[in-house]
Write a structure and sequence with these properties.
By secondary structure, this protein is α/β, with parallel strands linked by helices. The protein has ten helices and ten strands. It has helices at 2-13, 50-53, 57-66, 77-88, 121-128, 146-158, 176-186, 198-201, 217-222, 230-242; strands at residues 19-23, 39-40, 67-70, 73-76, 93-98, 101-103, 142-145, 165-168, 172-173, 213-214. The strands form four sheets. A three-stranded parallel sheet has the order 1-5-8, with helices on both faces. Strands 6-7-9 form a three-stranded mixed sheet. Strand 3 (67-70) and strand 4 form a beta hairpin. The longest helix has 13 residues, at 146-158. The chain is globular and about 60 Å long.
Length: 247
Amino acid sequence: MGTIGILKATKKNAPTVRRVVITSSFAAMNDRSKTVGKTYSEADWNPMTEAEAYANAANGYRASKTFAERANKRATQERAAWEFVEKEKPNFTLAVCIPPLVLGPIVHYLNSLSALNTSNQRTRDLMTGAAKASCTPTMNYISVVVRDLAVGHVLAAEKADAGGKRFFLVGGRFCNGQIAEIIAEAFPALRPNLPTGEAALKPGGYPAEGTYGFDNGRSRRVLGLEYRTLKQSIIDTVKSLQMVEAY
């Protein structure tokens, strides 16, 4: 059905709905040409063109989060939602939550750690020894804890002032080397599985030239959201993964 299909159905069939909250993605705002020094906020949009989307598989994935067919033109799914509200004047207002990489403990059933979601595989690989020889490159250097993301959605639905706004839900910067350090400190029994030494840890560190930053001030001011620490998130994640397979 897609985003616009859901909005159309809500307008037509649910006149008592007053707020719709959409989960967007950092892919809808990330400019891959600005990987150093850029501070991302709700004001940013992904400038990718259709031609760039066909350049490689990674761009194709980002395009899948970005493009939607609208009136024979290309627009982001999220932009199309905003334009729908502006044009159709439904009874509801729109709020959009935009997460980067999502980390945190699992609560759903897994028959093995091989079925784990992509974001948490970095933690799995560190605690199990799969990344012992070389820490996995981080790639995405900002994250949010899944529980904070969930709370953000609830607050975006409940807070009167949240209507008509985007919210960039970011808990902080991180690298995979930090995750290894947290596991080593909190779980001594797992230390033999972890990468050690500069050569093994360097791939999972921050790039020498620096990375991009973020501004999550609106989520704090309007939603009143307080973010959990990376340390607590990783500790809780490891414990949840140990419930699936003992390590």
